[in-house]
Amino acid sequence: MIKFYNIKLYELETTIIEMEVDTNGSILKIESVIFIIIQCLAELKEYVLENKFKNIEEEISFFKHQKPVIVSKLIYYNAIYKIETKKPNDKKAVRKYLNAELKKLKIYFDNNLEFYKYYRTNNSFIDEKLFVRGKHDIKLSLDTVYFETDHRFSTSHDYKAAKIIANDLIQVYLEDQLNNNRHKPTDKTTLKWTGSKTALIELIYSLYSKGVFDNGNVDIKVIAKVLGSAFDINLGDFYHTFMEIKSRKINRTKFLDSLRDALIKKMDEDDKI
Description:
By secondary structure, the chain is mainly α. The chain has two domains: 184 residues, no CATH class; 87 residues, no CATH class. It contains twelve helices and no strands.
């Protein structure tokens, strides 16, 4: 199961990146991306229905972590499509509109606070109720969408998990739009990244792979956006840069290795003092 999923996720993310680069017109791009994600989910569903999970742990992992990653992309792009098609033209109206969209995210967070805490802290004591098919508890704040989905390919909370991941991305998008809408100087202290862009992307992917943010329940785009903004650097097409890093024949973790060497050298020098 995991091998098939990884292949489909890689294909999907690669296609999305290529479409974002090659397609002109944001609305047209979003429509195309949504279609591709729906196709990917259909193929994933077909595979799940035709192949049994090895055990209950594999089923939980799929519905708790794997499927939500792909569904979150669908939620995200669908939300952005709605935001862009309904966005007013007036600058002040745009700010009011975007802030209203941010408030919707806050309301969803407040209404699902207990599940946010459970998922963000990577708890597992009720996973069998939340992420196993055919098991649901009406007392556990079920989204209406659960009753409308195919229960052969859904659990009571896999969609809610996807919403958490998607809402992080939507929040970043809305805050970006608000920042672009403002032209006021900021007193925020920033650090200028003076290393190479490739080095920072290597660092970002290592942090993402280690799952050091929100117990691993955060999209790579969020990490890249936050760190890129913090260090005042435009990372551009960071996914393709990562592909180049992966293709290195020698020393694929060149920057991380240099960090380790620099830290050890610093420790050794301090010990001599």
